[in-house]
Hints:
By secondary structure, this protein is an alpha+beta fold. It has helices at residues 70-90, 100-122; strands spanning 9-13, 20-29, 32-38, 44-46, 128-129, 141-144, 148-156, 160-165, 168-173.
Amino acid sequence: MSSFVTGQIIEARCSRCKDVTGHVIMACLDGMPIKVECRACGSVHKYTAPGAAPRRKAETTVRVKAGHGRAEAVEATVKAEKAITRLMCEKPAAEPRLSRAQKDSIRKAEENEQRWNQAVNSIAAAPVPYSISGSFAEGTLVEHPVFGVGAVLELLPPDKMDLLFREGVKRLRCVC
């Protein structure tokens, strides 16, 4: 019987990875590892020797009611398990959880869409085609071949302007 120490790297069966991987011993009792941490996935779990078979799911217990036979109880249990499995498969997928950054980007996109709608709707003139050599004034609508219709927010002399498009604010070249 070999003696193990805390911090030693050993091979063990990981309960999350379901495979034999490298583990670090987290706790020992009488020279045998009790808790280990998987180096692949980082989970901390009880030590399972590499040669041990993975744990199998426990079978469901069949309860036989008074006055009924075992065959009827088994049949009822099997029907209930099939119904549960069917319901689990038919269950609609839950909406994916969004991170804070994803929520912020969605919120900013919605705010930008509202700003763009207000800017475009407040200007009654028809959009002018964009050209690098064109001269534009603040508050005019510009039609860009890639970004679509945008409103001139600010002129930045000598040769740039900020335009508000549906996707966001873009800085383009122009003649001021």
